[in-house]
Every structure is written in C-alpha cells, then in structure tokens.
Fold this protein.
Amino acid sequence: MRRYVIRRLLSLGLSLLVASALIFSVVELVPGDPASFMLGTGAQPDTVAALRHELGLDQPLPLRYAHWLGGVLSGDLGQSFTYKTPVAGMILDRIQVSLPLALMALMLAMAIAFPIGMFAAARRGRAGDTLVMGATQIGISLPNFWFAMLLVLIFAVRLRLLPAGGFPGWNHPGAAFRALILPAIALALPQAAILARVLRSALIETLGQDYIRTARAKGLSAAQALSRHALRNALIPVLTVLGMQFSFLLAGAIIIENVFYLPGLGRLIFQAITQRDLIVVQGAVLVLVAAVILVTFLVDLGYALIDPRLRT
C-alpha cells in the first residue's frame, strides 16, 4: 500500500507541474493586453509600455513562467492587476464560500442518491424502479439555474423561509449556512439524479455475480446481500462519479453563484476574465486544477481500500 501511495503522489506532483505550464501558456495566449484594458483605448503607447514594464508583461514568456512558478511554490500567487491585492488572499476569501457550498451539495446528493439508487436496484423492472428512473431523468434534464430560480420563488419570495441571495460571511454562521441551503439544493438534485442512476447500474451488475447468489444460498435476505456485499463492490464507478461531481461543484457553480449573488471562486474567475486580470485567472484556475488532481488522488486511494487487487 505504501508503494502504491508513493507512486500516486509522484504522479500527482508531475500532473500539477504539467498543469501549471499549460494554464500559464493558455492564459497568456488569450487575445488582448491587460495593460491596454486597464488604461483604456485612449491611452498613449508610452503609458501602456510603462504599465507593461511595471506589471512584468514585457519579459520573455519562459522567464515570467519561472518567476510565477517560483512564487506559487512559496505560496505567492502574485498580485491582482485590477485590485492591487494578493491573489492568494482573494482566492482564500472566495473558496470559503465555494468549498462549503460544494461539500453541502455533494453530501446532499449522496443522501438522496444512495437510498433511491439502492431502492431502484432492489426492485429492478418493477413499478418502483420505473418511477425512480423517470424522476432521475427529469432531474438530469432540468437546468440547475432554472431550478434555482424556482427555489427562490417558492422558499424566498412566497414562503420567506430562506434568503434569496447574498452571503453574510462566516462571522454569522447561522445566517451563512441558511444562505447556502438553496444554492446547495439547486446544485445537488441534478447530481443526485446522475449518481442514483450510476449506483443502480453498478448494483444491478454486481447483484448478478456468483458470490451474491452464494450469499443468498447461505440464508441472507436480498436486502442483506445488497447492503453487506453488493454495495461495497459497486462503489468503484460511484467513487469515480463522486470525484467528478465534487470537481464540477467546486469549479462549475458559476451560474448558481450568479443567481444567488454568492462571492464564490467561479464568480471570481468570471470577473477576472472580463477585467483581463490574467494573474487572478491563472492562480484561481491552478487552485481548481490542484483540487481536481487531489480529489482524483483520494478517489484512487478509495479504489485501493475497496478493492485490494488495484493496489498492484
């Protein structure tokens, strides 16, 4: 197991290095000049050149990448062109919203998906299975931003039970938690529908294996065989989907963050792109890629814990 973990850690480090080079190169190749954008179309060429020199944009690309990578390794992601504040601090402020939101949505999706996925698998081909699969198909088809606006209309406008948007900060934990409930539900339900269908398919395939029939022959009920034996062996594809969903929930919640006016990481990237604040885009995207790679590493460890054969 130790050798397996070391190999995965080396792969993680190499992936981060390659990802940093790709992120820096792609962002630098985006058309437009940050200095010209900041000064406006009427700026004089010498003024633009002076600002480019101040921002370090006139240096060769490899030198700028090496300088940026050195800062990243020391925890310094640079300074925002627009706000003149450290990028790391901006990302830390925003991730305090995006990370709890993603975790809440993922836990809610699991709490919904596991029971209904197991219910549908245990009743394959029956009315309950058909009803659950129809509901999950509707959940996948509905756009989450439309569902988010529906939640606002019902629970914030009409019933006045939850806030319609905004985030008060974690200095008021109760209010902060209430502000994330509706966004988390809007993000969780489509993901729960996907996860339930994956779990159902994996369980149905597992329930047809010989060891399940042997367990039934030894006296276990269908529910006991499903929960004790089939569920664990069906978790590998489910873990894959969970890893992908967490990455999406962390990085892809920009529409929901805009609907609920949440100061999250996705919204920060959107604002930085519109303002040509490339150093913020590079830092935020690198953090998201690092989160995805870390989640993939944890999923691989989960594979090895579930199925010892995968350790070799």
